[in-house]
């Protein structure tokens, strides 16, 4: 059965007191007999065995100044908080005023973290009500800065760390986590944090930020999430030499040792939380792919950078087709350049190829690969027999530094083009309609390349998707100036709309944050045992259909982060449908309720509910 998202107290009234039957997350009925003059029949409540200061200092229970007098009595906190009970709206007024006084985004980040550490209900209310503004603090771009500075701004622990000294202990350690029900785990090894490289254990802020979006955008309960760092070391010299660094001070494990480490962790998770969805995040190529292929058919997991980035980028490309007045099943008519051949670049291009094949307008997968030109840091993945851009000596494939290319990247090799052509040369040669940036390399969309692109197409689709903002392949302003205001533009991190010659040019944000919360919600609600390719493709199509004709005309491709809850609902319903269709769902459908109603009812909404104390032995 699907879990009721809120605890429910069912009261049977006797003359002087109430018998209260409370169901916890495991649907175990707990019964307590006490007098609750402030509660009515069917009141939602939260329960605790805690008392006094322990209640005030538990961020999942604390309401700060909002505890009612009756709650203060029964929880033993009378006199421990200021006397006036202040409801959430007043608390929000105070919080917002204090937040606005923070001078820098990083100060805001620290402020938000402190709020999350003392009162999660208030934190999530604030976040949901101001998603567009505050996602830029708890997520990209500010989270990037917070990762770099994690070891110097560290205040209080959140999440779990599994490190090289924990080998052999992980199955026992997982029981240290205080919650019996975990629905979503985001795990990183910190090897490629946004476009910032190897940040080791400092990467913890990424799972925390992603999971905050799961709660705020996807309605997952804050008690059901688990952020994890696999601290297998770091190769970041600066961190290794910093005495304040909090991770293991050795170089990264690699090879068999690395994969054995991850395997032990997966076993530990499975032993306690066999139904949890695992999101692999910010693992460097090729580990990211290797882990995905190892686990995707074994456990309920996906790789965010590969798969949900692919869903949202495909959504952007499909919506851009519509914005250019083309049908979305004409993807095969596009000429796409992808700058970046790592997890995200290859993942996004695979999603586009899957979609072209699904649309049935290409004869083979190979034909679809032929529509995409891929560049890595050396330039185009081209034919080394035709020579390279920087040397006239031909070099057969598999020799020299091209030996690193694997079969996933070699699918895009262009036999009729010279290896390592630079971006501008590629653009001039093939006249692309779409250019994607997933390189983590700022400024690689240079003026020459973008101007050349704009000469060949009326509405060039320019998507510099690298994060955070300062790693973006170009700025919004550059894209609109170099294309004479004609670009359809989206970036990974937010930019402001641009005014160009009196016209407001719209900026979209294409970030996997638009897809993973809804996906996780759908998996959680249906209790799907696996995450499938179809779920990502349908997520893309769902998101691509969300903008109105007028929005598309104005350059808006789909709703922004501010509408994340609405987007997540739609995505979750679609993911649930697929889970049932593909026979992967383990939750029984509820009679008389549509999937949409079930999804909506499952979404946690931060509000204060009365707290009652129960006897821990009941
Ligand atoms: N908007 C979104 O939702 C998402 C954005 N991203 C962003 O994508 C970026 C890449 O992530 P990911 O793929 O995981 O990282 P990887 O490290 O796996 O891959 C980076 C790729 O970029 C290539 N590259 C580096 N410099 C250049 C250059 N100057 N010109 C062309 N290619 C270059 C690398 O080449 P080589 O192989 O030769 O080293 C490599 O192929 C990050 O900045 C990340 O923030 C990632 C996921 C989601
Ligand atoms: C957004 C994201 O997942 C990344 O930049 O890695
Ligand atoms: Mg990522």
From TrEMBL:
Q: What Pfam families would the database entry show?
A: malic, Malic_M
**Gene Ontology CC terms:** mitochondrion
- Give the organism, scientific name: Modicella reniformis
What name does UniProt use for this protein? Answer: Malic enzyme
**CC cofactor:** Mn(2+); Mg(2+)
Domain of life of the source: Eukaryota
According to the entry, every stretch annotated as the Malic enzyme NAD-binding domain falls at 306-580
Family classification = Belongs to the malic enzymes family.
Where does this protein hold (S)-malate?
192, 467, 511
Kindly list the positions annotated as binding a divalent metal cation: 281-282, 305
Q: Which residues of this protein are catalytic? A: 139, 210
Residue ranges constituting the Malic enzyme N-terminal domain according to the UniProt record: 116-296
Q: How does the cofactor attach, per the note? A: Divalent metal cations. Prefers magnesium or manganese.
Q: Which GO terms describe its biological process?
A: malate metabolic process
Q: Which UniProt keywords apply?
A: Metal-binding, Oxidoreductase
The terms under GO molecular function for this entry are: malate dehydrogenase (decarboxylating) (NAD+) activity; metal ion binding; NAD binding
């Amino acid at each position: 059965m699907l879990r009721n998202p809120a605890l429910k107290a069912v009261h049977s009234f006797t003359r002087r007191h109430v018998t209260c039957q409370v169901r916890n997350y495991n649907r175990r009925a707990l019964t307590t007999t006490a007098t609750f003059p402030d509660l009515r029949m069917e009141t939602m409540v939260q329960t605790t065995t805690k008392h006094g200061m322990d209640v005030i200092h538990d961020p999942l229970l604390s309401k700060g100044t909002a505890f009612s007098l009756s709650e203060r009595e029964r929880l033993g906190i009378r006199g421990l908080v200021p006397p006036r009970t202040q409801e959430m709206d007043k608390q929000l007024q105070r919080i917002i005023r204090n937040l606005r006084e923070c001078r820098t985004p990083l100060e805001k980040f620290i402020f938000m973290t402190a709020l999350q550490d003392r009162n999660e209900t208030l934190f999530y209310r604030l976040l949901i009500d101001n998603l567009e503004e505050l996602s830029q603090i708890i997520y990209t771009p500010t989270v990037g800065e917070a990762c770099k500075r994690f070891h110097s701004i560290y205040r209080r622990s959140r999440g779990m760390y599994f490190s090289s000294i924990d080998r052999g202990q992980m199955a026992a350690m997982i029981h240290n986590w205080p919650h019996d029900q975990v629905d979503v785990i985001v795990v990183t090894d910190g090897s490629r944090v946004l476009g910032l490289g190897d940040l080791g254990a400092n990467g913890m802020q990424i799972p925390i930020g992603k999971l905050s979006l799961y709660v705020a955008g996807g309605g997952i309960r804050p008690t059901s999430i688990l952020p994890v760092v696999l601290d297998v070391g770091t190769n970041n010299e600066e961190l290794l030499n910093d005495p304040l660094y909090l991770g293991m001070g050795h170089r990264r494990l690699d090879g068999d040792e690395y994969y054995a480490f991850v395997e032990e962790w997966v076993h530990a998770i499975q032993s306690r939380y066999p139904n949890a969805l695992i999101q692999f995040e910010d693992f460097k190529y090729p580990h990211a792919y290797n882990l995905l292929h190892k686990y995707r058919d074994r456990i309920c997991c996906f790789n965010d950078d590969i798969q949900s980035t692919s869903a949202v980028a495909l959504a952007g490309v499909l919506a851009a087709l519509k914005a250019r007045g083309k049908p979305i099943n004409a993807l095969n008519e596009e000429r796409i350049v992808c700058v970046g051949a790592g997890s995200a670049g290859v993942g996004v291009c695979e999603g586009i190829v899957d979609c072209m094949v699904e649309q049935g307008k290409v004869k083979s997968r190979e034909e679809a690969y032929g529509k995409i030109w891929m560049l890595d840091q050396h330039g185009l993945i081209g034919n080394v027999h035709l020579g390279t851009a920087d040397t006239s000596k031909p070099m057969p494939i598999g020799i020299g530094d091209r030996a690193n290319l694997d079969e996933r990247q070699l699918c895009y090799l262009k036999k009729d083009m010279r290896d390592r052509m630079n971006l501008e040369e590629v653009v001039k040669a093939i006249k692309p309609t779409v250019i994607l940036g997933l390189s983590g390399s700022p400024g690689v969309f240079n003026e020459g390349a973008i101007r050349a692109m704009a000469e060949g197409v009326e509405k060039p689709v320019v998507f510099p998707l690298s994060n955070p903002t300062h790693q973006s392949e170009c700025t919004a302003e550059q894209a609109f100036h170099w294309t004479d205001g004609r670009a359809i533009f989206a970036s990974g991190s937010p930019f402001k709309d641009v005014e160009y010659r009196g016209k407001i040019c719209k900026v979209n944000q294409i970030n996997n944050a638009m897809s993973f919360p809804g996906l996780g919600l759908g998996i959680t609600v249906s209790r799907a045992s696996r995450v499938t390719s179809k779920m990502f493709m349908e997520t893309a199509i769902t998101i691509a259909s969300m903008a109105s004709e007028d929005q598309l005309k104005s350059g808006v491709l789909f709703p922004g982060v501010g509408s994340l809850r609405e987007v997540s609902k739609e995505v979750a319903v679609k993911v649930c449908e697929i889970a049932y269709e593909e026979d992967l769902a383990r939750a029984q459908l509820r009679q008389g309720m549509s999937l949409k109603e079930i999804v909506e009812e499952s979404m946690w909404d931060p509000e204060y509910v009365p707290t009652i104390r129960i006897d821990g032995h009941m």
